[in-house]
Amino acid sequence: MTVTAMLSVAPVDSPGVDFDAQIASAVDALEEFDVRYRTHPMETTIEADDMAELMAAVTAAHQAVDAPRVGTTLKIDHYREEDLAVEEKVDRVEDRLGRTAASDR
């Protein structure tokens, strides 16, 4: 099985907090877990083999942000009966498009 998640963790209403440094701390916390991840401009995509590992990684990322208020958004796609890597999800869409699913405009 594969668990894929979209994670966004950030300080909220926290003047004086270095936003970029706190995001970096959240991303760095993922290194302690058996997950694959890629950070994008507005979220980090995480892939794990099981829900427990994913949730532990998400909790660590949330706790790594040192701010008076922290906002976390999590969206989970849990394949319970098969493995489907994040690259395969994109490949399926690109196969239908007949091109890459990106634009450099």
Question: How do the helices and strands follow one another from N- to C-terminus?
Answer: EHEEHEH
The coarse overall form would be: flat
The percent range for strand residues is: 25-35%
Radius of gyration: 15 Å
Largest sheet: 4 strands, antiparallel
Domain Thiamine-binding protein: 6-94
GO cellular component, one term: cytosol
Pfam families: Thiamine_BP
Family: Belongs to the UPF0045 family.
Structure description:
Belongs to the UPF0045 family. The chain has about 100 residues and is of the alpha+beta class. The protein has one domain (about 1-95): Alpha-Beta Plaits. The chain is built from 3 helices and 4 strands. It has helices at about 20-30, 50-65, 85-95, and strands at about 1-10, 35-40, 45-50, 70-80. The chain has a 4-stranded antiparallel sheet. A hairpin with a 4-residue loop joins strand 2 and strand 3 (about 45-50). It is flat. The chain starts with a strand and ends in an 8-residue tail after the last helix.
List the helices and strands and how they pair.
Elements: E1 2-11, H1 19-29, E2 35-39, E3 44-48, H2 51-64, E4 70-79, H3 86-97
Antiparallel strand pairs: 1-3, 1-4, 2-3
Helix pairs in contact: 1-2
Key structural traits:
single chain, 105 residues, alpha+beta, Alpha-Beta Plaits
